[in-house]
Amino acid sequence: MHYALRILAGATTLCAAAAAAGIQPTIHPTSVCQSIARKISSHSEVFYSGSPNYVAAMSHFDSASSQQAACAVEAGTPVDVGFTLRTVGSSCVPFAVKGGGHATNPGFSSTTGVHISLARFNTTTYDASYPNTANGAVTIGAGLTWGQVYTVLDPLGVIVVGGRDHSVGVAGFVLGGGYGYHSNQYGLAADTVLSFELVLPNGTVRNITEKSDADLFWALKGGGNNFGIVTSFVVRAFPQGQVWGGSVVQAPGQQEAVGAALDQFDSVTDPRAAAVGNFIVKNASTLLTSVTLFYDGPTPPPGIFDAFLALPTLQSTVKTRSFLDLVLGNAGLPTGYRGASGMVAYTANTPTFINATINEVTSLGVSLAINTSAAAVYYALEPFQKGYMKNSTGAYPPPAARAGSPMPMAVAFEWSDAKDDAYLRKELADSVARLQAVAVSDQVVAGQSSVALPRYSNYALAPTPLEEFYGAEGLARLVKIAQRVDPLRVMALAGGWKFQTHR
Question: Which residue range or ranges hold the FAD-binding PCMH-type domain (predicted)?
Answer without folding.
Answer: 65-240
